[in-house]
Design goal:
Layout lengths: L1 H20 L6 H5 L28 H17 L4 E9 L9 E10 L10 E8 L12 H31 L4 H4 L2 E8 L15 H12 L15 E7 L17 H16 L25 H4 L13 H4 L5 E4 L20 H18 L6 H5 L23
Parallel strand pairs: 3-4, 3-5, 5-6
Antiparallel strand pairs: 1-2, 2-4
Length: 397
Amino acid sequence: MATIRFLSQAVHLLLLVYFTIAYTTLSDDGLKAIPGPGDDFNIKTGKLLAPILQPRVPGTPGSIAVQNHFIDFFKTNLPKWNIELQNSTSKTPVSGDKDVPFVNLIINRDPPWTTPGFSGRLNLVAHYDSKLTPHGFIGATDSAAPCAMLMHAARSVDAALTAKWEKMHADGMDLEFEDQQGIQILFLDGEEAFKSWTDTDSIYGARSLAAEMESTAYAAHSTFHNALSSISLFVLLDLLGAKNPTVPSYFKTTHWAYRKMAKLERRLRSMSLFESAGKKGGSKRDDKPFLPESDKENTGGRWLGGMIGDDHEPFMERGVDILHIIPSPFPRVWHNREDDGEHLDLATVADWSKLVTAFVAEWMELEGFMKAGEEAAKPGREVEPRGDQRDTGKSEL
């Protein structure tokens, strides 16, 4: 077991070096091919966002409806993606002797020549549950909008992934050694506390999934010894959708990835591809970067990782690299009734969607293939199916 773990850690370090050094930058044409969400983010009728804008407390009809929304979207629009459900139950401070069900959705796509255990995966993560209180709480930034962003990103890169992998096969490349990187989306349940944030009243789904991923072993000859070790990077989106966010770089170990995303943001802004930037009649603050800390390592800034309780914690405790995309300070509407669709800044939501998609496209080395997927990724298109502050949880810094 020690030997297997050592080899897995060595593979992980090699992957980190690979993505740090051999990372292929998207061209200007590649960035221009990144689609926006358009009407699919309309808060009343949008096909991606609107169905999530409802109370989604674990175990309630609203939670089940949103689960079905995710499943239907991928089955109908992205049939090459694999969908799994991971179930758990737990008592909560408000449920008495009753167990509350929690359902995590695990949705992934790997190169077609790989098998489980041989493909590393970029993980894109958001929680989809909403708080029990206040009554009727929607949680548009927390985290309906981040969930819609991940759906948009998956749709936007899907055809490009197909085009890239088909070309590799047609070119007769030695596929066993060329590309073993897939992508995985985690929609996590039970992030919110039912009463008040503690180690046991919070992140129910994340705690269950991290433990299961660690304990479920792949075949002995696999590159990775379990699903947890196959996570190349855990990108967690939370509290996104309010105007003028500021997202620090929380972890020195993943600052390189933060810088990659920040560079993409600067390029998108310079090419006038951000909807929230430079609005007519807007303030200078409208051009303030979402990710302002690219040079943090040279300025002596504080690394605040570990100060915010969130779904990354049980994964980080097991050695997974975390890129936490959560603003500080938190949005003004945090944990109150105003965190609804009407208080989203939809231009900002659209810009986050483009930025996350661009980050995924670079990570998956889709330069030259995004144009191939541009038509397929247009919003609204469907295809026929084929069959210490830690005690209070997400506390402001």
